[in-house]
Amino acid sequence: MADENIDETSTAPTEDPGPVEEAAPETVTEDASETPAARQDPTMRELAQQPAEEVQQQAPVADDFKGQYETLKAEFEVLKAKYSETADRADSAERFKEELAAATGRVAEVERRLLRQKVGSEFGIPSALIDRLSGDDYEAMALDAKQLSAFVGAPSGGLGKGGLDPNETAFDAKKFVARERSKLYSA
Question: What's this model's pTM, rounded to 2 decimal places?
Answer without folding.
Answer: 0.39
